[in-house]
Backbone:
């Protein structure tokens, strides 16, 4: 914990302390909330980085036209209601009487300004709005959005498209977004002006950030906090120790092996629930020959029987109980069950090593084959351990896997586009930013060519034109039931083809003091306006 | 003296150039900085444009030359992750690391020298043997283990000291100090002990060995024969002569304490340069890494120079020997 105070105050303090007997730990004010996370918060421009943690922190200070409630349902935010006037036009009615923290009124001008700014050069959140959507001010509290093609999920990601104050941005040289490549960031890049429940009192990136409640907030606070202090604690052991010793009230994440310790302590609890992230294994189906395999002249992964054999060789329940200590939800889909209404219709192929061996023999690999698995060791929960378990299970059916586990920056540089998708067999995980299946299909399952045009995260290069076709239909289908049916059809094709080996949804694990109540949302955003310290 | 300093200056520049060259060659293998700078759903076209804008597609000699030219003006660029000028970032974190290093060196010397003298003067006493056995722990346990142990004992179980951070700091000009507040002092105790424990045992064993050797020399015997009291013999004569090797070792160790306080800073989330460097490595934040490595090279060069000058001050024979030669 670090903050700066003036020398005069120090003098007064020292005198007081000299008179008082040596004090024990300072008693925490009941309404002080201290939170520690393993990552850091950088610049405070809401369009600089499209990343869950950053957007979650900023979600305490900024707001979008819509919000999501504790179950991730879309509810009104800065827009009280909206309707589709016709297939290509949406009308949003803005909330009246809302002010930014500096007192400026919120109205349609701020929405239009934000819509331009988020699509400007340097913004990382341009995909929040269609590039050619036109925002029109009908009156100070009504905005029309004119599209060129129908988009049933237009506002799905608007809970993290934050509305900025036009006047403040112009006065503080913040009209252009702070871009990733900014070599001389403006001073205002580390300040914020939003309509949300809190404001930033101070921010030292990587060290400490302090939030205080916004007295002019338009909504009724559910929280009882006077002050929120967020610090970064990267080392797992230290973070757990800080929670146990009472130095912090909430930590995220908790390493799974420390969960029993936190639960046994009378003053601390563990909060756990499924996360939206799906972890899966992918196979290179584009190469004519696998670079790391002993099989020459053909690619085993291009045969669906081989892929299905790999799938059935993996005992996901053993991974769940042994590796994840029960904290995972095995899945048959590439999307979280909470995000697709028909998810329960899909079952995994059964775990059956004998059937796997038979399939391999049928495909022409009675003695199996060898391949290298590229895995991160610090990106997902127990990622390396999952890979090691998979290697052992695959060895039992004859597939000899060499594990290449690396730190995330090196793993990403190898297997993603920047490295030329240089991998035969890899572990990856995905959370659709829009919380919708179209994002999953387009990013992971549509055909791509050698340069990455097409599915940008379709690392293995799976290609089935029917899936591309369905994805295009899903994009424009406005009837929700029909849309879900199309999505189900696409997932069925992926399942039958065994395009991927889905593993599980990992769990969120937060640690908190017993006197703290907070809502844990499956997208891992830590929102203080739902926290109470008793 | 002037020629000595000049030759040292030339050596220093050559050393730093070597370090930066090796570092630059290594940076090609640290991973992709662009991937760490943008959200995962960023399009490939945007990523390629970012690479171009950051100059990452230029050939290595070009990037190296650009870096050297800027470094000569003390412009180390902007951190990819924190969007802050690297010089400002390092300047903000430097006081934390320097204070921690200073306090841990003070602890190491203040604890190590007296204990070493005690163990050297009475090598067979129970106290001396106990200290020597315990000192083995200090040498053999890894730093992070000591740190975590201290946290769990003093912070989690006893609740006496904080488990992370620097406490309240006071800003004096450009320097933020934690040594003027009670919470600052309470926060620095555990990290300083963790960082200084190895040096303390080193100094203790060194002083003990040196004292035992010095006490056997002729001039000590003569001093005793003259009837000088024990206190003068031990501290006036014996201890002074053991100081040369202690200064050498301490000098070299200060350099590594400052440079490699990474582990202690990670365990205690101490906002110093070591933690900054570790985060930079994890995020492939090349400007920060390059500047940090240059700084450390400069630090070691300066420390070696200071140690050599200190030799000349402490040992008259070296001064006279140089003058004669």
Residues:
């Amino acid at each position: 914990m670090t903050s700066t105070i003036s020398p005069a105050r120090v003098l007064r303090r020292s005198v007081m302390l000299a008179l008082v007997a040596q004090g024990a730990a300072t008693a925490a004010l009941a309404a002080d909330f201290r939170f520690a996370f393993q990552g850091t918060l950088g610049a405070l421009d809401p369009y600089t980085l499209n990343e869950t943690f950053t957007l979650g922190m900023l979600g305490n200070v900024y707001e979008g036209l819509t919000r999501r409630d504790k179950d991730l349902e879309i509810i009104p935010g800065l827009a009280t209601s909206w309707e589709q006037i016709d297939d290509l036009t949406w009308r949003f009615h803005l909330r009246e009487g809302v002010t930014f923290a500096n007192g400026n009124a919120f109205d349609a001008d701020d929405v239009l300004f934000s819509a331009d700014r988020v699509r400007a050069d340097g913004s990382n959140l341009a995909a929040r709005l269609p590039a050619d959507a036109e925002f029109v001010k009908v009156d100070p509290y009504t905005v029309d959005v004119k599209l060129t093609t129908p988009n049933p999920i237009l506002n799905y990601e608007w809970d993290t498209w934050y509305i900025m104050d036009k006047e403040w941005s112009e006065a503080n040289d913040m009209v252009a977004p702070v871009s990733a490549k900014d070599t001389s960031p403006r001073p205002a890049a580390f300040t914020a002006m939003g309509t949300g429940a809190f404001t930033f009192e101070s921010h030292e990136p990587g060290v400490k950030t302090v939030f205080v409640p916004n007295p002019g907030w338009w909504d009724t606070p559910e929280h009882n906090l006077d002050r929120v202090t967020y610090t970064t604690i990267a080392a797992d052991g230290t973070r757990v120790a800080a929670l146990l010793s009472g130095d912090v009230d909430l930590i995220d994440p908790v390493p799974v092996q420390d969960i029993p310790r936190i639960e046994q302590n009378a003053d601390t609890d563990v909060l756990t629930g499924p996360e939206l992230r799906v972890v899966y294994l992918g196979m290179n189906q584009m190469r004519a020959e696998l670079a790391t395999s002993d099989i020459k002249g053909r690619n085993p992964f291009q045969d669906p029987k081989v892929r299905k054999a790999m799938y059935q060789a993996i005992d996901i329940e053993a991974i769940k109980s042994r590796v994840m200590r029960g904290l995972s939800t095995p899945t048959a889909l590439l999307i979280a069950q909470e995000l697709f209404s028909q998810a329960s219709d899909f079952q995994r192929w059964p775990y059956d090593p004998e059937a796997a061996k038979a399939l391999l023999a049928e495909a022409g690999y009675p003695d199996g084959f060898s391949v290298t698995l590229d895995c991160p060791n610090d990106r997902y929960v127990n990622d390396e351990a999952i890979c090691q378990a998979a290697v052992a299970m695959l060895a039992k059916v004859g597939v000899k896997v060499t594990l290449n586990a690396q730190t995330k920056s090196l793993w990403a540089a190898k297997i993603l586009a920047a490295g030329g998708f240089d991998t035969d067999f890899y572990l990856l995980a995905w959370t659709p930013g829009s919380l919708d299946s179209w994002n999953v299909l387009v990013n992971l399952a549509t055909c791509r060519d050698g340069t990455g045009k097409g599915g940008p995260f379709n690392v293995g290069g799976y290609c089935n034109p029917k899936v591309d076709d369905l994805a295009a239909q899903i994009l424009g289908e406005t009837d929700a039931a029909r849309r879900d049916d199309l999505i189900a059809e696409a997932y069925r094709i992926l399942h039958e083809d065994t395009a991927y080996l889905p593993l599980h949804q990992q769990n969120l694990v937060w640690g908190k003091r017993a006197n703290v109540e907070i809502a844990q949302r499956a997208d891992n955003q830590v929102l203080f306006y739902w926290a109470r310290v008793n | 003296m002037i020629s000595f300093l000049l030759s040292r200056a030339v050596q220093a520049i050559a050393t730093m150039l070597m370090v930066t060259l090796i570092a630059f060659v290594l940076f090609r293998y640290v991973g992709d900085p662009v991937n760490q700078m943008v959200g995962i759903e960023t399009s490939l076209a945007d990523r390629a444009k970012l690479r171009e804008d950051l100059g990452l597609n230029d050939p290595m000699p070009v990037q190296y030359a650009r870096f050297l030219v800027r470094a000569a003006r003390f412009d180390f660029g902007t951190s990819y992750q924190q969007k802050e000028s690297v010089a400002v970032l390092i300047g903000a974190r430097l006081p934390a690391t320097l204070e921690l290093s200073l306090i841990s060196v003070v602890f190491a010397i203040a604890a190590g020298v007296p204990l070493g003298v005690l163990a050297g003067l009475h090598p067979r006493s129970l106290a001396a043997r106990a200290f020597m056995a315990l000192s083995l722990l200090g040498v053999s346990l890894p730093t992070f283990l000591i740190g975590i142990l201290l946290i769990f004992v003093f912070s989690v179980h006893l609740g006496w000291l904080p488990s992370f951070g620097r406490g309240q700091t006071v800003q004096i000009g450009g320097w933020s100090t934690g040594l003027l507040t009670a919470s600052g002092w309470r926060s620095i105790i555990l990290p300083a002990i963790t960082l200084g424990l190895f040096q303390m045992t080193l100094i203790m064993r060194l002083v003990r060995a040196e004292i035992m050797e010095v006490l056997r020399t002729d001039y000590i015997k003569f001093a005793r024969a003259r009837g000088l009291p024990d206190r003068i013999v031990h501290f006036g004569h014996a201890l002074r002569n053991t100081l040369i090797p202690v200064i050498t070792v301490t000098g070299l160790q200060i350099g590594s304490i400052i440079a490699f306080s990474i582990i202690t800073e990670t365990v205690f989330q101490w906002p110093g340069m070591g933690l900054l460097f570790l985060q930079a490595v994890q995020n492939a934040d090349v400007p920060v890494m390059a500047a940090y490595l240059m700084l450390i090279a400069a630090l070691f060069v300066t420390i070696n120079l200071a140690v050599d000058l200190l030799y000349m001050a402490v040992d008259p024979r070296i001064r006279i020997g140089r003058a004669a030669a």
Notes: The two ends of chain A are 22 Å apart (CA to CA).
